[in-house]
Amino acid sequence: MFIPQLSDVLDRRTLYSGNAPLNDPNIPNSFSLDTGGMTSFFGGDVAVNAMITIHLVPARRWLGWYNCPGTYEVARRYGRASDSRFLQGLFPGVPTDLATLLGLEGLKGTKYIGAHNGAVLEETGPFSALLMKHSVHHLETVKIPGRETQALAVTITELQHPPSNQAVLHSPIHPPIFAIIPILTSVGTAVACGVFQDWFSFSMIVLGIFVNGISCIVIGAGEFVFQYPVSHTDVPEDGILVSDKDREIIVLKGGGDSVRCIIQGSATLHFKWRRWIKWCAILLVLQLIMQILLIPQGTLFGQIMFIGSLASSWAYNLWLSSKNQESVQGDVFVRGVLQSPRFWRYRLGTRTTAVVFMLLALKPKDPGKVLNMLLPNDTTEWLKFKDVILSRIRANQELRFEHCFWDASPLEHDKKLMELLFHDAEAAYDGYLLHLSRSEEKEAPSASAHEK
């Protein structure tokens, strides 16, 4: 037997019904808004996306005192996290993984190549994706002079501190003053209903304010818990993240725990008041049912006030959900978990320059393996060029070359190619010397000083 979902039934309800009073319950009127349907018509997904920001911006936990739409979808999403058999039966098929509440389930990281352990991971965890986006969009870039064809960026990341579980923002990204708008609107519409003695609409708006405020406090009490595998060996885990899509290479240097948390870390939420989430979900569902039943009993004016409070809250939730959550998540990860590592980002004009520069900065155990993975060209000229570069890097020699390195080629176009490649290597070496001078300054720039 087919049982329709409650949200589907509500979406098909009409927004108008007959035989409801206008301002005086004793005066009949043929026009009435079916605001019970409106309570689910306004976006449940928008409400859930706005609720997610509570876990990333803790100040929002105390700013939920307004009549909020989409309560059924919020109850549906968080009810399954309460380990209640009743709610699991009421909301079948909803993911129970708490990591989904952080909005990280869809993020896939880029390729990782280990510098010393020989590890190669074609896909990494969500935090490498956040680190890549943070590097691309939020770091100042220094351009290295040289030939330009298809430029790549190389970000050198020094992970100075072990990862931390205290990954919260200490200042809200979204100014709390904007939360005053839906709060004042909900309170104002409730007062207006009271003045006109529409106690049905008044009580339902007040109920919505109370239930949403309590839910934000309880749900916002979830603590960010960061997890990553622990290694029992002392092999350094420096390596690189490579993104052909973003044309970016990130060099990871630091403790093994910090590197593992980037490439294999995961996050979840720990709720101190987990049993209270069950009651919040039940309250949210009961609120929806009571509003469906009682709001049509109010006056037309009260129904308009009720819709006005929902519209204001929906607009606020829409504004919150429109913010770039990945940017907020990246900020939480970089500043909270990684504790603000040091970044240096350089733009190099060719892939050859970028790869040689990366080898100089990374100093891998087997530079030939990494070089061939990123520059697979295997013609005679390319193999000669690679042999010279690798011998210089292994011997820790300068990358300076005379004409004899390319004049020995019998064909003119081979000479030209070799000359370009060796000049690219020299540009990479000049960029590496620049990086050394910047990193050895007494007051090395912090991560925030490099951000736009």
Task: Write up this protein.
- The chain is of the alpha+beta class and 452 residues long.
- The protein has helices at 6-11, 35-41, 44-56, 71-79, 85-90, 126-138, 180-195, 199-219, 256-264, 274-294, 300-322, 325-337, 351-362, 367-374, 380-394, 404-407, 412-439, 447-450, and strands at 16-17, 32-33, 111-114, 120-121, 141-143, 152-159, 223-227, 239-243, 248-254, 266-270, 342-348.
- Strand 3 and strand 4 (120-121) form a beta hairpin.
- Helix 7 runs antiparallel to helix 8 (199-219).
- The longest helix is centred in the C-terminal third of the chain and has 28 residues, at 412-439.
- The relative contact order is 0.18.
Distance N terminus to C terminus?
A: 58 Å
The amount of beta strand, in percent, is 5-15%
Annotation, overall tally of beta strands = 11
Strand/helix succession: HEEHHHHEEHEEHHEEEHEHHHEHHHHHH
Counting DSSP H or I runs of 4 or more residues, the number of helices is: 18
**Uncertain parts:** 9-25, 27-31, 169-173, 442-449
Describe the strand arrangement of the main beta sheet, using strand numbers.
4-3-8-9-6-11-5
